[in-house]
Amino acid sequence: MRLVLASASPRRLDLLARIGVTPDAVRPADIDEDPARGELPRPHALRLATEKAEAVAALEPDALVLAADTVVAVGRRILPKVEDEATLRKCMALLSGRRHKVLTGVALAAPGQKLRTRLVETVIAMKNLSAEEIDYYAGHGEWLGKAGGYALQGYGEVYVRFMAGSWSNVVGLPLAETRHLLKSAGYPLA
């Protein structure tokens, strides 16, 4: 059975490799990822994963299509994928000393089957960040393109003082739930 990953994220490819899965193709979905007006973080993550899976499944009707979207949320606020240092500094100041949620929506489209979805939540508490720590991290560069501006799989982990939930979810793809979705659709896994 052919598997297409609807994501350009190298982290998702690495995570899939941990469970012995190598997609046959990588085909990122071209959708608008902006939150709808008043959209809350949980429905936003699930909607984007669903739209990505559906968009790529329309182009790959005979394949399994796996899609995901990871959102960092402080309360009802969805933090952006950080593309510049000013946004990084705002995100780090907001996260400093606070708990936040990392939500990943996962969707799997299978030919002739109902779309399967999961939403996974991990709670993280950041330590209080000094101006020097934020300056150092800003110079590090690993934050570029990351939701909320930090990489748990990189240096950003030193700022985390508490985590409840899935580590792989925070990196971008909750492995237990993804494996379950793939197996339930008949994808061959050990």
Structure description:
The protein is an alpha/beta fold. The protein contains six helices and seven strands; from the N terminus they run E-H-E-H-E-E-H-E-E-H-E-H-H. The chain is elongated and about 55 Å long. The mean pLDDT is 95. The two termini are 15 Å apart. Helix 1 (10-18) links the parallel strand 1 and strand 2. Strands 1, 2, 3, 4, 5, 6 and 7 form a seven-stranded mixed sheet that branches.
Please supply descriptive tags for the structure shown above:
alpha/beta; 6 helices; 190 residues; elongated; seven-stranded mixed sheet
Number of helices: 6
Can you write the helix and strand succession as a string? EHEHEEHEEHEHH
Radius of gyration: 17 Å
Which outline best applies? elongated
Fraction of helical residues: 25-40%
Distance between the termini: 15 Å
Which spans of ≥5 residues are poorly predicted at pLDDT below 50? none
Give a quick account of the main beta sheet: strands, pairing sense, barrel closure.
7 strands, mixed
Beta-strand content? 15-25%
Multimerization state: single chain
Question: What class, by secondary structure content?
Answer: alpha/beta
How many runs of DSSP E, i.e. beta strands? Answer: 7
User: What is the mean pLDDT?
Assistant: 95
Topology:
Blueprint: E1 3-5, H1 10-18, E2 25-26, H2 41-59, E3 64-74, E4 77-78, H3 85-95, E5 99-109, E6 116-126, H4 131-140, E7 160-164, H5 167-171, H6 175-184
Parallel strand pairs: 1-2, 1-3
Antiparallel strand pairs: 3-4, 3-5, 5-6, 6-7
